[in-house]
Amino acid sequence: MSDIEKIHGITPDLTKENVDRLLALFPDVATEITDPKTGRTERAVDFDALRERLGDVTEGNRERYQFTWPGKREAKCLAREPIAKTLRPVKERSKDWDTTQNLYIEGDNLDALKLLRENYAGKIKLIYIDPPYNTGHDFVYDDDFSQTQDEFNAESGEYNENGGRLVANTESNGRFHSDWCSMIYPRLLLARDLLTQDGAIFISIDDNENKNLRNICDSIFGVQNFCAQIVWQKRTSPDARINLGAAHDYIVVYAKNLLFFKGKMHKLTLSDDRKSQYKNPDNDPRGPWASVDITGQVGHATSSQFYKIKTPSGAILNPPQGRCWALSESTFQDLVKDKRIWFGSNGSSRPRQKKFLSETEGGNTWTWWTNSEVGHNQEAFKELKTLFPEGVPFDTPKPTRLMKRILDIASDRDSVILDFFSGSATMADAVIQKNNEDNGHRRFILIQVPEKATGRYSTLTEIGEERIRRAGKKIKSDIEAENAQLTLDGTPKKVPDIGFRVLRVDDSNYEDRRKLVDEYSQKDIDDDVDITKMDRSDLDLLFEALPKFQLPYSSKIDVLSGGEFDGHTVYSVNDGQLLACFEDSIPESLVRAMAAFRPRPSYVLVSENGFLNSAARTNFTEIFKQSADEKTGATQIRII
Question: What pTM was computed for the model?
Answer without folding.
Answer: 0.82
